[in-house]
Amino acid sequence: MGKIESNLQTGLGTQAVRPGSAALRELVAAIAQDAHVRGNGEADPHKAIALVRAARLGVYRLPVEEGGGGASFTQLFELVLDLAQADSNIPHILRNHFAFVERARRTPHQAPYSRWLDSVREGALYGIGASEIGNQNIGDGDGATSLDAQGEDFVLNGVKYYSTGNLYADYIVVNAKTGDGRFVAARVAVGQQGVDVRDDWDGIGQRLTASGTTLYDHVAVSREDVLYYDDEFKVPRQATFSQLWLTTIIAGILRAVVNDAIALLKRRERNYYHAVNARPADDPLLQEIVGRLDSAAYVAESSVLRAADALGRAYDSALAGQPDEALFLEAALHSARAKVVIDELALDAATKLFDVGGASAARQSAALDRHWRNIRTIASHNPVAYKARVLGAHALHGTTLPNGAFF
Q1: Which of 13, 93, 308, 317 could form a disulfide with 77 if both were Cys (CB 3.0 to 4.6 A apart)?
Q2: pLDDT tens, residue by residue, 251-272
Q3: Whole-prediction pTM
Q4: 3-state secondary structure 348-383
Q5: Are the CB atoms for 186 and 154 separated by under 8 Å?
Q6: CATH T-level topology, domain 2-125
């Protein structure tokens, strides 16, 4: 990554990058620079995460006086757009870390969260262990993973899937159940004995996110690294953040689709046999396609940023100690509406991209199919049909939205 990488690594351990700063632009540019070779398996994704660490991006949302970047909630999601445009894998890898940071900031009275947040200030990145495969009861996200007493401390056993980001993290916060049925979060270190983070994700898209399996085999857990969820300060609609983050990544990919369409059209010298203009970039039909792609990207970006603004106001109410359910509901509605429209817009745009390039656009070396594959993979986290049905029921009857499951 040359000069940009050197500049970022020189700043390791210093003040975190700030919104709108030259350092932040350098970071995004460095990530974009090697995105293609990373996607082809010719570069180590850990190097991109090393740049994230060097820029202290993990504390982007913490106050400047605490060594953080001082970013607002909306500025965080503007960053997600930029990173997703550069390489959609990177913000996806970081999603669980930033979700953890937001949750910890809202519960400062909880000793585990307070201590864990101190490690973030020291540079640690966090992953999570939540999803399991199997016949779980609806809403039972902790499944068979168990945390059992062992002397003064505990031992953790279980298997979690969709472990996005864990391969690149320092700690994992794992959802589990105690022997008496209490729901808990247990923090473990990625490198400690019994923690096996496997890079076995075989998805068609987001291939570098390592969203595969993490096994926990008799992992020792200190008593001070256990948080009981029934003691936690309740904040409504925890899942809206994660859903909006994913939809924002898709909006960022849409930006990349537009840029690729423009670049593809500008370098083409030969047009279709029945074209209305010999030069592809001057062909009004191809210009129309680019205009539609550009409009789709604009609508997607505007939608997710409006939802981010709403969710930011809701989180501010929680940070003030009085979470406003109405604000959280508004944010969940904005996020759900954005997903219903953006998923379809983006998938259509990723297909129309090929209409400006002809057969040559289908070359594997161009890797233009990555946009559709990445969008399809992210969109599959929560089917549009369920979102649209709930939105319809709410519009017609005022039916309450689910408080979870990516709402």
Answers
A1: 308
A2: 999 999 999 999 999 999 888 8
A3: 0.94
A4: HHHHHHHHHCHHHHHCHHHCCHHHHHHHHHHHCCCC
A5: yes
A6: Butyryl-Coa Dehydrogenase, subunit A; domain 1 (1.10.540)
